[in-house]
Design goal:
- This protein has an eight-stranded mixed β-sheet, sandwiched between helices. Strands 13-12-11-14 form a four-stranded mixed β-sheet, with no helix packed on it.
- The chain is elongated and about 70 Å long.
- The longest helix is centred in the middle third of the chain and has 20 residues, at 194-213.
- The protein is 27% helix and 27% strand.
- The protein has helices at 22-32, 76-89, 95-104, 115-120, 141-153, 194-213, 230-236, 256-275, 283-287; strands spanning 39-45, 51-57, 62-68, 105-110, 157-163, 169-170, 179-182, 218-220, 240-246, 292-293, 296-308, 311-321, 336-342, 348-359, 373-375, 381-385, 388-392.
- The structure holds zinc ion.
């Protein structure tokens, strides 16, 4: 059913580009407050006293808690939540599906847990604290709030929505990890507790549907136990918790496609929770999801001839955006820096230029902004000036 939902009729158009700011969030929430199905309240306040909202819907016995943007510069989950709100509030041919969800589940959304970080497009909160490493110390008001909500709601399922760097890729396929999934471990041994088992089965199911949409683009986030993090601790406390990381996808710098995937993942997951369908998925399928690795550059220049004191060598040049995190507007990531030089034949890239023996006049400096010009086999010119790329097509 979830796969037949026409995403574009629910996509929230105001959130398509630019920063996902708190002002924008408030504007969108004010339109929801007028609707009957979703209950909106201020759950608490950030360090700089911005409102943090809780949106609840449904009357079923299974409490589900979903939170996004605890890292302020990771807005994709928040955007997908608003698409989902549009779906949940609609009155159309999917009413039976909605009623099924509302009868079985009570959903509690906390969009943008870190509004102060979101305002600055930064990971941390206004105190400089990484909220997702503050579970034990509870020094940030945002971590205190999330903990209190977890105690109040006692969710059976938890969805922890993040963005990851576009440079994460999938082991074996070398494709970007457009979505990475994890049922976080609850201890050092990554034991399979009854609640973690459900999360693993649900992840396996999600991977199944994603494999039909983006085969080779789904990774598994590291299973290392992180004692300071919320997902790991909520798992330990008996909430079947899923980490969902939105990543890069070719041609999707604004992350609108992975936002749609988030929407589909959440609808599918809610259906699976409602019908207990996740029980049909195996732990083996979970373990077969390939690991997240870093075998990707933003731009790879292959087969450059480089003079060295010991003679001429042939190398590849791996370049990344100097601000390597992609969930920001394009203008912030336009500069290229030299990440690696050498035999990079085992790596992949969003864009590859083969210069087939183009010879350099001078040495290259690792870590610096790109300042050089290369010409490919078709005589197209790629000129980098202080990291900026100017492309001149051969006429
Ligand atoms: Zn994050």
């Amino acid at each position: 059913m979830h796969l037949f939902v026409n995403y574009n009729s629910y996509k929230e158009p105001l959130l398509n580009s630019g920063l996902m700011t708190h002002e924008l969030l408030k504007e969108k929430i004010s339109t929801i407050t007028n609707q009957k199905k979703i209950e909106v309240k201020i759950a608490g306040y950030s360090a700089q006293h911005r409102e943090i909202y809780q949106l609840s819907v449904g009357r079923g016995p299974i409490p589900v808690m979903l939170w996004s943007q605890m890292h302020g510069d990771e807005p994709t989950g928040t955007r997908a939540f608003f698409d989902l709100f549009n779906f949940l509030q609609a009155d159309d041919e999917h009413n039976d599906f909605r009623q099924l969800i509302f009868n079985h589940c009570t959903l509690h959304f906390i969009p943008m847990l870190n509004p102060d970080g979101a305002e600055l497009n930064e990971r941390r909160n206004a105190q400089g604290i990484d909220i997702n490493r503050d579970f034990l110390q509870q020094q940030s008001p945002e971590a205190q709030l999330l903990t209190r909500l977890h105690q109040q709601i006692q969710p059976a399922f938890g969805f922890n929505m993040h963005d990851q760097e576009a440079l994460w890729s999938v082991a074996g396929t070398k494709q970007p990890a457009s979505i990475s999934l994890l049922a976080p471990p609850a201890d050092d041994l990554a034991l399979v507790s009854p609640s973690r088992l459900k999360a693993m089965q649900l992840v396996a199911g999600i991977n199944g549907i994603l494999s039909s949409i983006i085969p080779g683009y789904v990774g598994k986030w590291s299973e290392t136990f992180e004692p300071h993090a919320f997902g790991d601790n909520f798992q330990r406390l008996g909430t079947s918790t899923l980490l969902i990381e939105a990543g890069g996808y070719p041609g999707d710098a604004e992350r609108q496609f992975v936002r749609e995937l988030n929407f589909k993942i959440l609808l599918y997951a809610l259906e699976q929770i409602t019908t207990a369908g996740y029980q049909h998925h195996s732990i083996t399928a979970y373990h077969q999801i390939p690991q997240n690795v870093k075998e990707l550059f933003h731009l790879l220049i292959k087969n450059v001839i480089l003079p060295t004191p010991a003679g001429i060598i042939r190398v590849d040049i791996g370049l990344n955006h100097s601000h390597s995190f992609d969930a920001v507007p394009l203008q912030h990531q336009a500069l290229y820096a030299i990440q690696d030089i050498g035999d990079l034949s085992t790596y992949n890239a969003y864009q590859t230029i083969d210069v087939q023996g183009y010879e350099f006049a001078h040495a290259l400096s690792l870590g610096s902004l790109a300042n050089f010009t290369v010409i490919d086999a078709l005589n197209n010119t790629y000129s980098f000036q202080n990291g900026q790329l100017f492309f001149i097509r051969k006429t």
